[in-house]
């Protein structure tokens, strides 16, 4: 999720639709406890991203990730995690291809989802172009195809989330399909109150197929932005965030890879979200300082798997025709 104001440097407060208990209480904690998911986006994007993310999970404090199935290195993830059966890994619904020289298209046949294919034959670079060209039906087809592709390489998704936030910055129908598929597969989808207020409440008829009472809303979402990278540096930004973490459930999004030749080539022409940024994320979340900050601030690490228990104990595999 990149360059989008919805998630940048913000902690969004939210509550479940008609729940009297807070999400923390529903998970067995008190309403004053600080619960955190340290989530690495974009696994599957590159070999560098895959290796660094898994290293940060094995030997750092990262405890969640989500896969970009349209990318060239997504199938490698299935091999790399064979000995990690408890891994918290979601499907990072990917509708865009923002890179200048690294290209990929939709998982579904281009003839089925022509609105997701730009003039160059690959996905569009930005969410606005997706919203302008891709019908809700096409987007739902592609979302389902990405979930099914993950299943085929041995991944049992623990949740859904959205690359660049394009599900939320597209058409309201995209969100309806996103929630419908999460419900169908028996897993949570990342949502917060701001999305509910901006998209669901003004368009209630679009969500008739979704049991909104079972939609789990995250209390807070946090991510670094370019100003934090340039002015504070990642260490200072994350340290400040953890020292000031609010009670409730926070998803802290990061992007982890090595600053190597592959990642520098992929991110050519980008002044942010590049190889050095991702290396800085890796360095912080595999260092000793972050462990001490978590301890000092009495932060409890949780995963999407625990949240998934609130909507269904395990992935539901739809009946194949």
Automatic annotation (TrEMBL):
Coiled coil: none annotated. GO terms for molecular function: deacetylase activity; hydrolase activity; metal ion binding. InterPro entries: Glyco_hydro/deAcase_b/a-brl, YdjC-like. Its cofactor is Mg(2+). The keyword Hydrolase applies. Keywords: Carbohydrate metabolism, Hydrolase, Magnesium, Metal-binding, Signal. Residues 1-18 form the signal peptide. One of its GO terms (biological process) is carbohydrate metabolic process. This is Glycoside hydrolase/deacetylase ChbG (UPF0249 family).
């Amino acid at each position: 999720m990149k360059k989008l104001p919805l998630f940048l440097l913000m902690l969004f407060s939210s509550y479940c639709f008609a729940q009297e208990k807070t999400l923390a209480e529903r998970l067995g904690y008190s309403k004053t406890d600080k619960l955190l998911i340290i989530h690495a986006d974009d696994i599957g994007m590159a070999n560098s991203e895959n290796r660094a993310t898994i290293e940060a999970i094995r030997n750092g404090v990262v405890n969640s990730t989500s896969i970009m199935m349209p990318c060239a290195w997504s199938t490698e993830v299935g091999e790399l995690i064979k000995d990690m059966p408890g891994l918290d890994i979601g499907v990072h619904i990917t509708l865009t291809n923002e890179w200048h020289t690294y290209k990929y298209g939709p998982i579904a046949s281009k003839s089925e989802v022509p609105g997701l294919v730009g003039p160059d034959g690959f996905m569009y670079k930005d969410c606005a172009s997706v919203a302008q060209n891709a019908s809700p039906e096409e987007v739902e087809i592609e979302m389902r195809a990405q979930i099914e592709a993950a299943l085929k390489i041995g991944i049992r998704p623990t949740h859904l989330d959205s690359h660049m936030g394009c599900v939320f910055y597209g058409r309201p129908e995209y969100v309806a399909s996103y929630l419908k598929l999460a419900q169908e597969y028996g897993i949570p989808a990342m949502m917060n109150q701001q999305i509910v207020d901006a998209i669901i409440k003004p368009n209630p008829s679009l969500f008739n197929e979704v049991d909104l009472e079972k939609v789990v809303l995250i209390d807070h979402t946090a991510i670094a932005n370019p100003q934090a990278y340039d002015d504070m540096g990642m260490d200072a930004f994350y340290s400040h965030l953890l020292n000031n973490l609010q009670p409730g459930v926070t998803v802290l999004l990061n992007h982890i890879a090595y600053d190597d030749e592959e990642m520098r080539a992929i991110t050519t022409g980008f002044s942010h979200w590049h190889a050095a940024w991702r290396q800085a994320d890796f360095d912080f979340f595999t260092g000793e300082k972050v462990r001490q900050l978590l301890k000092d601030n009495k932060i409890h690490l949780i995963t999407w798997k625990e949240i998934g228990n609130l909507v269904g104990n395990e992935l539901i595999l739809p009946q194949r025709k």
